């Protein structure tokens, strides 16, 4: 089968085309005939999944396709069912998915939309609902809001009835997101937004922060938090993994700080997130209250070009790859 692999090279990641055998589903696994998959910065740009000097690995972590074969013990699905989920080696004609991660595709989604949902929206469920406990009427701040997770956080927060502030270095991107309900856009790539956040919230601060950027803005996000605010660290595209913590603010504001990670969790922990997402967010998607934002769709043969497009930071939302028509 046609597939793409990712390997480290000179401090970056490179995708390469390979001809690989079709995998065989083991117990509890489903073999999917892939129709679409989407790109994730953490894998393809930052290179979390491939360490320097490490071996190449099958590329792609989420997608959508038709069930081609069921492993032993799998129930609830049949051949030709339309399925989406987090799966390893999604940039291929066939991919294996843990049945606990598999979700039936809502009928109102295209293949590309379905293939762009699992990682971003399950991370969003974790940080906005499971850990962030965001409520209607509360304020959410998302740094680097135009990326896939940022846009998904905006859409989910608005569906929950929250108010959203977002930062981006591009005024054009912020204008596009206002059509999705962005309440306040702050044009900046630096840690200089707390004053504007306090002004927008009547000097109270935000109830929840989603930090997509990393350590370079961490101190500023702490300053932007309200009393009993919550802070989610989900990304570090700036490459800055350390920052000072204002202990006095942590103490006097009674803040809660937590991290969000998919890669370092066990299969059962990920399955718990899938169940929570299916209960809390998937119905909103199936009802059309949340529609995944796809910036651009590339043909399967053009995955390297799709990666280059992501590296250009031009997109708003997700970048998808069409594998089968």
What value does the average pLDDT take? 94
Distance between the termini: 16 Å
| Level-1 CATH class name of the largest domain | Alpha Beta
Spans where pLDDT lies below 50 across 5 or more residues: none
Helix/strand order:
EEEHEEEEEHHEHEHEHEHEHEHHEHE
Give the strand content: 25-35%
The total number of structural domains is 2
Number of E-state strands: 16
Secondary structure category:
alpha/beta
* CATH arch. level architecture of the largest domain: Alpha-Beta Complex
Gyration radius over CA? 19 Å
* CATH level-four homologous superfamily name of the largest domain: Medium-chain alcohol dehydrogenases, catalytic domain
Major beta sheet summary: 7 strands, mixed
- CATH-derived topology of the largest domain: Quinone Oxidoreductase, Chain A, domain 1
The count of helical stretches stands at 11
Q: Which of globular, elongated, flat, extended, rod-shaped describes the shape?
A: globular
Task: Give the helix level as a range of percent.
Answer: 25-40%
Oligomer: single chain
Explain how this protein is built:
The protein has 325 residues and is an alpha/beta fold. The protein folds into 2 domains: 2-117 and 292-322, Quinone Oxidoreductase, Chain A, domain 1 (Alpha-Beta Complex); 121-259, Quinone Oxidoreductase, Chain A, domain 1 (Alpha-Beta Complex), CATH 3.90.180. Helices cover 27% and strands 29% of the residues. Strands 3, 5, 6, 7, 8, 15 and 16 form a 7-stranded mixed beta sheet that branches. It has a 6-stranded parallel beta sheet with strand order 11-10-9-12-13-14, with helices on both faces. Helix 5 (171-178) links the parallel strand 10 (163-168) and strand 11. Helix 3 (118-130) crosses helix 9. The longest helix has 14 residues, at 267-280. It is globular, with a radius of gyration of 19 Å. The mean pLDDT is 94.
């Amino acid at each position: 089968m046609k597939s793409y692999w990712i390997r480290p090279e000179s401090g970056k990641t490179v995708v390469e085309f390979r001809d690989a055998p079709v995998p065989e589903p083991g117990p509890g696994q489903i073999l999917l005939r892939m129709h679409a998959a989407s790109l994730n910065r953490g894998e393809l740009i930052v290179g979390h999944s491939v360490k320097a000097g490490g071996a190449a690995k099958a590329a792609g972590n989420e997608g959508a396709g038709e069930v081609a074969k069921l492993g032993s013990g799998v129930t609830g699905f049949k051949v030709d069912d339309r399925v989406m989920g987090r799966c390893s080696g999604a940039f291929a004609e066939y991919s294996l998915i843990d049945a606990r991660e598999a979700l039936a595709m809502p009928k109102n989604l295209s293949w590309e939309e379905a293939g762009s949902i699992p990682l971003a929206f399950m991370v969003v469920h974790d940080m906005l609902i499971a850990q962030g406990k965001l409520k209607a009427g509360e304020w959410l701040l998302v740094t680097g809001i135009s990326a896939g997770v940022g846009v998904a956080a905006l859409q989910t927060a608005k569906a929950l009835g929250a108010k959203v502030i977002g930062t981006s270095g591009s005024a054009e991107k912020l204008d596009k997101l206002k059509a999705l309900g962005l309440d306040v856009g702050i044009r900046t790539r630096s840690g200089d937004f707390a004053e504007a956040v306090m002004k927008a919230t009547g000097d109270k601060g935000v109830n929840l922060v989603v930090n997509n950027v990393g350590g370079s803005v961490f101190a500023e996000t702490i300053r932007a938090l309200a009393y009993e605010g919550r802070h989610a660290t989900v990304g570090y595209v700036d490459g800055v993994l350390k920052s000072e913590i204002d202990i006095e603010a942590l103490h006097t504001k009674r803040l809660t700080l937590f991290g969000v990670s998919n890669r370092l969790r066990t299969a059962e922990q990920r399955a718990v997130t899938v169940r929570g997402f299916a209960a809390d967010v998937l119905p909103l998607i199936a009802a059309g209250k949340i529609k995944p934002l796809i910036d651009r769709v590339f043909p399967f043969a053009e995955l390297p070009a799709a990666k280059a497009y992501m590296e250009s930071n031009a997109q708003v939302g997700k970048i998808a790859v069409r594998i089968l028509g």
